[in-house]
Amino acid sequence: MLLSDIPKFMIEVLDYDIKDSGFIASVPYVMIYLGYVSGGFISDKLIKSGVLSKTWARKWCGLAAMFLPAILLFCMSFLDNNVPILILMNIAMYFQALPTLATMLIMLISLLAFLLFSVV
To answer: Which residue intervals of the chain are DSSP H helices?
Structure first.
């Protein structure tokens, strides 16, 4: 939802021109791509070096993808300058893309299993 509302947010709230916001609104997609690539690279390095197991490497990437964007987007609400808002928004998109789809599915299944079987 955040990605689909970025151009509208930039035009209505940040008062960007449509021509300016078109290029700037494409930056989060580049950050998402970089997040996917580097998330896989980071988790592979953690697994191959023996620092974390495969499960824990995926969980840490998933946790970073959930909490860091939330913190950054919360911080955005206190800013009134466009440049820091756009920087935080793009960094949030990067961290949101760290885990792959498989990692997110594993985390959701784990959460559902925990909720279903721990509440007795």
So the answer is: 2-12, 18-24, 27-48, 54-76, 82-96, 101-118
Residue 11 and residue 58: Cα distance in Å, rounded?
37
Kindly indicate the confidence band of residue 18, based on its pLDDT and cuts at 50, 70 and 90: low
Q: What is the pLDDT of residues 36-83, one digit of tens each?
A: 778 878 888 888 999 888 888 878 888 888 899 899 989 988 988 888
What is the spatial distance between Cα 22 and Cα 63, in angstroms, rounded to a whole number?
31
- Letter string b/e over residues 50-77, b meaning 16 or more CB atoms within 10 A of that residue's CB: eebeeeebbbbbbebbeebbeebeeeee
The 3-class SS string of 39-73 reads HHHHHHHHHHCCCCCHHHHHHHHHHHHHHHHHHHH
Angle at 17 between CA 13 and CA 21, to 5 degrees: 80
Max CA-CA distance within the chain? 56
Asked whether the predicted pLDDT for residue 106 surpasses 90, the reply is no
The pTM score is 0.70
